[in-house]
């Protein structure tokens, strides 16, 4: 990847200000003195006036190494993680919203009008059965958190995790030891369920829902007999209020964004990258680059700082590490000197989960059925923009 000269446009702008000042005062100073003065001015202005509107360059180079050095500096205290399906694939979890994963192949008997109907709240209220049949196939509790999940847990233990915003509903962040306060589950969670009856809304725990799903009984409210739905966000439902309230307060405080396993194509989640101050470095760990919106109109809609810029001559804060999320986290942990600690944590936690699953195996309602790989569903109408419907 291109590594821009650290003395890029920011420094050039700084130079211009300095030139103007030099001609006023008529003095000549060395580059070192100039830098020192510019640092002072930058800090002064960002603290007193511009609060986050200054494009200060905080990374000494736009690489994983540069990010690691920044993370080890005093300046980087609060990290926000933004994560998507890519952090759970190594746990064996397919992206269950995608009709092309094969999960949908077993649903032909339900005659869905189109695959996404399964996640539409209106359809669900009339026909909940296909959703629960799908849920049985990828139910939380059958999967173990990944290296990437435990890397986020380690950030928490180091006191650096401000928040983890996840698009996943698999609850693996919780299984990995993140607490509700650490999390914004933007697309909801399986962890709790509620009766869909508008005047009832009775809450049910994961264990209750799990028992119903594995006994192949459509979960019905014990109070009013309405269907009970896991608290995942369906098409046609609002994101949790917590998403918006945390977003308002978190991002201005963020010293670093780590974006993992997401192609940043689902709104409003994708727009979170634009909420941090303009100086805040953003590290993307993903199979391919994301967030680089080429369409200038869409770029404008995303707002200032909305699009990622990894390689232009103006790039100053965005770093892309391309590859598997787990490998990216291991590489970063290694650079931070945390690798051994991360590996020990994973070993300990996975052993704990194995012991737990072993003790549950006697209970037929929680045992896992052997997983087959059915052929891809015929209707591979993958839509990535939430709410967009296939024709
Ligand atoms: Zn009810």
Automatic annotation (TrEMBL):
Catalytic activity: N(6)-acetyl-L-lysyl-[protein] + NAD(+) + H2O = 2''-O-acetyl-ADP-D-ribose + nicotinamide + L-lysyl-[protein]; N(6)-hexadecanoyl-L-lysyl-[protein] + NAD(+) + H2O = 2''-O-hexadecanoyl-ADP-D-ribose + nicotinamide + L-lysyl-[protein]; N(6)-tetradecanoyl-L-lysyl-[protein] + NAD(+) + H2O = 2''-O-tetradecanoyl-ADP-D-ribose + nicotinamide + L-lysyl-[protein]
Protein residues bound to Zn(2+): 195, 200, 221, 224
Gene3D superfamilies, A to Z: SIR2/SIRT2 'Small Domain, TPP-binding domain
Co-factor binding comment: Binds 1 zinc ion per subunit.
Stretches for region Disordered: 1-32, 353-391
Gene Ontology MF terms in the entry: chromatin binding; DNA-binding transcription factor binding; histone acetyltransferase binding; histone deacetylase binding; histone H4K16 deacetylase activity, NAD-dependent; NAD+ binding; NAD+ poly-ADP-ribosyltransferase activity; NAD-dependent protein demyristoylase activity
Example of a GO biological process term: fatty acid biosynthetic process
Signal peptide: none
Segments of skewed composition (Basic and acidic residues): 379-391
Pfam families (alphabetical): SIR2
Residues forming the catalytic site: 187
InterPro entries xref list: DHS-like_NAD/FAD-binding_dom, NAD-dep_sirtuin_deacylases, Sirtuin, Sirtuin_cat_small_dom_sf, Sirtuin_class_I, Ssirtuin_cat_dom
Protein family membership: Belongs to the sirtuin family. Class I subfamily.
Protein name: NAD-dependent protein deacetylase
Organism: Otolemur garnettii
């Amino acid at each position: 990847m291109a590594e821009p000269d650290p003395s890029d446009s920011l420094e050039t702008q700084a130079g211009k200000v300095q030139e103007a000042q030099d001609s006023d005062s008529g003095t000549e100073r060395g580059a070192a003195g100039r830098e020192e003065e510019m640092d002072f001015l930058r800090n002064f202005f960002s603290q007193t006036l511009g609060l986050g509107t200054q494009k200060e360059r905080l990374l000494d180079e736009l690489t994983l190494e540069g990010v690691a050095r920044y993370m080890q500096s005093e300046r980087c205290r609060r990290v926000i993680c933004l994560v998507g399906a890519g952090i759970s694939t190594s746990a064996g979890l397919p992206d269950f919203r995608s009709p092309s994963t094969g999960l949908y192949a077993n649903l032909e008997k339900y005659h869905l009008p189109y695959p996404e109907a399964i996640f539409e709240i209106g359809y669900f209220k009339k026909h909940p059965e296909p959703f629960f049949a799908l849920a049985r196939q990828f139910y939380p509790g059958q999967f173990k958190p990944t290296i990437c999940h435990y890397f986020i847990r380690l950030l928490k233990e180091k006191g650096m995790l401000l928040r983890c915003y996840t698009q996943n509903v698999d609850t693996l962040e919780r299984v990995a030891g993140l607490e509700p306060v650490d999390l914004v589950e933007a697309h909801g969670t399986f962890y709790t369920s509620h009766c869909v009856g508008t005047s009832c809304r009775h809450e049910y725990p994961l264990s209750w829902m799990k028992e119903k799903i594995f006994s192949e009984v459509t979960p019905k409210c014990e109070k009013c007999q309405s269907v009970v739905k896991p608290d995942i966000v369906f098409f046609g439902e609002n994101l949790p209020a917590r998403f918006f309230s945390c977003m308002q307060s978190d991002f201005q405080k963020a010293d670093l964004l780590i974006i993992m396993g997401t192609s940043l194509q689902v709104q409003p989640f994708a727009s979170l990258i634009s909420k941090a101050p303009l100086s805040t470095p953003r590290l993307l760990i993903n199979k391919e680059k994301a967030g680089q919106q080429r369409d200038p109109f869409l770029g404008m809609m995303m707002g200032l700082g909305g699009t990622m810029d990894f390689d232009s001559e103006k790039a100053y804060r965005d770093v892309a590490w391309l590859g598997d999320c787990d490998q990216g986290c291991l590489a970063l942990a290694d650079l931070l000197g945390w690798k051994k600690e991360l590996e020990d944590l994973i070993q300990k936690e996975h052993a704990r989960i194995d012991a737990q699953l072993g003790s549950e195996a006697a209970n037929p309602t929680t045992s896992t059925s052997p997983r087959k790989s059915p052929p891809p569903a015929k209707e591979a109408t993958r839509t990535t923009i939430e709410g967009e419907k296939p024709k």
